[in-house]
């Protein structure tokens, strides 16, 4: 299924058509809307993104915010709800994989060719770490490629199936990277390392969902039920940066997007992404990008003018 509007489940004829196919085949939703709300429901393996705003997902009593800078993977049979409430239309982008598809890809990537010839059956469903992730050079390009073609009017579900296989390959590489990162955490017990990785994911979720507010190390640590110092040590061991450093980098990414894509005044940009002042915004952007906020905006305008000239 390819849907360019949010599922109108209140409409009886649509609901009947939708549930004849839901849970049996792939489903892609790419819809522009200002408001949407879906109650808790057990879902298929899915990946979420949003552009031009924020969409909230509610998992295990937590709010996970997905926006222009992030995406989220939620596992098969995960129960969650979602909500979107914005002044301007937001692109809500969700891909739901048909049952067994991810298991098939995982088995084919792991098993020997001889084994696959003798027994082509699928394996068990892979488990992905469920935390908000910054856009990257691995999964994000495939998401954007699919989104671009859907926006251009592609309706071929066979084409979509091919792209989702490529996407799952990338997601499984990401899973292997998570396993490797977990193994590097400083603990002698594998179970402890896995639990630490899960809790540090909650730290990242908290930062990505609350970066525009005034938060500090204590708040971030509390979100994962860790002591501040333990959180500081383990987070830096995993990410190579402290939680507050990660927070400021997250704010810089959001500020850079606003500076490049909008005419929002610099003082307002600073406030919207959580920096206390224009001076703080200037300092952190200079540290990360090596230029001032006004230079970023000027460069974006120049790029736009060049595109118009062509």
Which features does this protein show?
310 residues, 8 strands, 8-stranded mixed β-sheet, 19% strand, 12 helices, alpha+beta
Molecular structure report:
This protein is an alpha+beta fold. It folds into two domains: 2-183, Sandwich (Jelly Rolls); 190-309, Homeodomain-like (Arc Repressor Mutant, subunit A), CATH 1.10.10. It is 52% helix and 19% strand. The protein has twelve helices and eight strands. The chain has helices at residues 12-21, 101-110, 113-118, 140-151, 157-183, 190-210, 217-223, 228-239, 243-261, 266-273, 278-289, 293-309; strands at 2-3, 27-42, 46-51, 55-59, 62-66, 70-74, 79-96, 133-134. Strands 1, 2, 3, 4, 5, 6, 7 and 8 form an eight-stranded mixed beta sheet that branches. Helix 6 packs across helix 7 (217-223), helix 6 packs parallel to helix 9 (243-261) and helix 9 (243-261) packs across helix 11 (278-289). It is globular. The two termini are 37 Å apart. 29% of the residues are buried. The mean pLDDT is 90.
